[in-house]
């Protein structure tokens, strides 16, 4: 896989603590943490010495931390840096994992669909449902999911990668909130999964390819956003039934496999519920 200006070309770049710290430091507004913000700043965000001051560590130590020369930082130091960076709980856990926190149990991806998830999927008939892994590869889907996404020309039975599909050029017309879906529902979640499965070379290749092929993906990845996007509304512009708003739930299996069941539902009696019924009508 070729590299580009972002340097995403090997496993270490995907889960690099220093690059993550640099990206998050650049996002902190000095004025928000009580520091002067003037025109003499050559780069956005905080300087290293300012972040070190806020975290209560020496400038030398924080510099070594960003440069990867400070090995095994303590939980106390990481928590102090997280507070200085104004990280939420999900992103704080991500920081600990990047630093190799031994308290966080290792996860092991599973290639085959878990039988329990397959059983649940087979029982779902009235709304779209699919099974994905930590890379957002579609491992299995029900008929209504295939009809929903098939309207966009997506073949879920071919076991595609949802992220690649979403960043295809014509996908924007199918998602009225395409940019938000990409940033909050996809890239931020992919970054979290990359840290949870740091040995996954396919994940590294996926991120590298998308960074080279799609400028918007590269921009989003550079923001170092980390989110756990398990629920929320998703709007679709479907060629058969028009605008469709469905509620997405992601049910992750708590066994470290990285697999999850994703459902898209609408409340009975609503227009969206009727549109789903129309979409699923026998043809």
Key features of this structure:
283 residues; alpha+beta; 434 Repressor (Amino-terminal Domain); Beta-Lactamase; 2 domains; five-stranded antiparallel β-sheet; elongated; disordered N terminus
Protein model, in words:
By secondary structure, the chain is an alpha+beta fold. The chain has 2 domains: 11-98, 434 Repressor (Amino-terminal Domain) (Orthogonal Bundle), CATH 1.10.260.40; 115-280, 2-Layer Sandwich (Beta-Lactamase). The protein contains 13 helices and 5 strands. A 5-stranded antiparallel beta sheet has the order 2-1-5-4-3, sandwiched between helices. The N and C termini lie far apart (44 Å).
Structural Rg = 21 Å
- SSE topology string: HHHHHHHEEHHHHHEEEH
Number of helices: 13
CATH-assigned fold name of the largest domain: Beta-Lactamase
Number of domains: 2
Adjacency order of strands in the biggest sheet: 2-1-5-4-3
Number of strands: 5
